[in-house]
Amino acid sequence: MAGDLAIIAGAGQLPVALAKAHPQAMKFVFQGMAHNMGTAVIEHSFNTLGALFQDLKAQGISRVVLAGGMSRPNLDPSKFDSYMTRVAPHLLAAFQQGDDALLRFVISLFEDHDIAVIGAHHLLPELTADQGVLSGIIPDHTYADINRADHIMSTLSSLDIGQGIVVENGLTLGIETLQGTDALLNFVAQTDDHLRHLNRGILVKRPKLDQDLRVDMPTIGPDTIQAVARAGLSGIVISPNQVILVDRLAIIQLAQDLGLFVAALEIST
Q1: How far apart are CA 145 and CA 149, in angstroms?
Q2: What span, in angstroms and rounded, lies between the C-alpha atoms of 264 and 46?
Q3: Are the C-beta atoms of 36 and 19 separated by less than 8 Å?
Q4: Three-class SS of residue 16?
Q5: What does the alpha-carbon distance between residue 24 and residue 188 come to, in Å, rounded to a whole number?
């Protein structure tokens, strides 16, 4: 029942798609955070999280979905409510431990208020892809690069680094860090030609090991396809049922137009 559901929205089209599919859901945003939800939203501040939870309970909300990109907030202790004053030391400690620790802490805050955090893919299962090739043909030489990418990502996962890597002819051209996939692909696109080889490389996009997919599922969209093409790569490998495809039809059509493959494949190591 959508009446007990709230969408806490960040930037991008995913929150918009969720709101369209669940029109009865209430829509919340944080002050200063980019979003595409228009004006029919309820706005709260990170400095007064207590007020947010009071509002959610008053509205009868028992489920929330956190969707869209959010930057780390600029906190002002002089504006903290009593709840935020109490949890801020733990929140700041989580900030220092990396994204995984931070997101787990945020989930725990909702659960402490008897509000379940659910993944966008639970509300829209069609956001992810089953095992298989969605577009194009995987070149034979690519499988060695997939194996190499999966080995590197598995090794780095424990360090809270990952979600995206570009490998070409066995060589690592870039690893996704805090700046995100677009920054990774822009970096690869600027790689000098003498460092590149005949066979075009790949982007592998997967969740980190033990990543909580309710709030931090990797995402690709049409912009990712364009960036992969600009980077001179041959295609994208994603994890089945663990990566969100924003506008799947557009992704597939654009990949076909640009001669790229998109495949959902299980991890190879």
Answers
A1: 6
A2: 37
A3: no
A4: helix
A5: 42
Q: What is the CATH number of domain 128-264?
A: 3.40.140.80
| CATH 3.40.50.20 residue window(s) in the chain | 2-123
- Domain 2-123, classified CATH 3.40.50.1390, yes or no: no
Task: Dig out the tokens for 75 from the structure.
Answer: 């906190």
Q: Start-end ranges of CATH 3.40.140.80 in the chain? A: 128-264
pLDDT by residue (tens digit) across 70-119? 877 888 999 999 999 999 999 989 888 777 788 889 999 999 999 999 99
| Phi-psi map region of 7: left, alpha, beta (phi>0 left; psi -120 to 50 alpha) | beta
Single out the residue of 135, 139, 137 nearest to residue 254, CA to CA: 135
Enter the pTM of the model. 0.84
Q: Where are the alpha helices (DSSP H) in the chain?
A: 14-21, 49-58, 82-96, 99-112, 120-123, 142-156, 181-189, 222-230, 248-258
What whole-number distance in Å separates Cα of residue 196 and Cα of residue 200?
8
Phi, then psi, of 141 in degrees rounded to 5: -65, -15
DSSP-based three-state secondary structure for 29 = strand
pLDDT reading at 1 higher than 70: no
- φ, ψ of residue 238 to 5 degrees: the values are -125, 165
- How many residues are there in the chain? 269
Q: Report helix, strand or coil for 30.
A: strand
Confidence tier at 62 by pLDDT (50, 70, 90): very high
| φ/ψ of residue 190, rounded to 5 | -90, 0
Per mean pLDDT, which of 58-62, 162-166, 264-268 is the most reliable? 58-62
Residue 109 gets which letter from DSSP? H
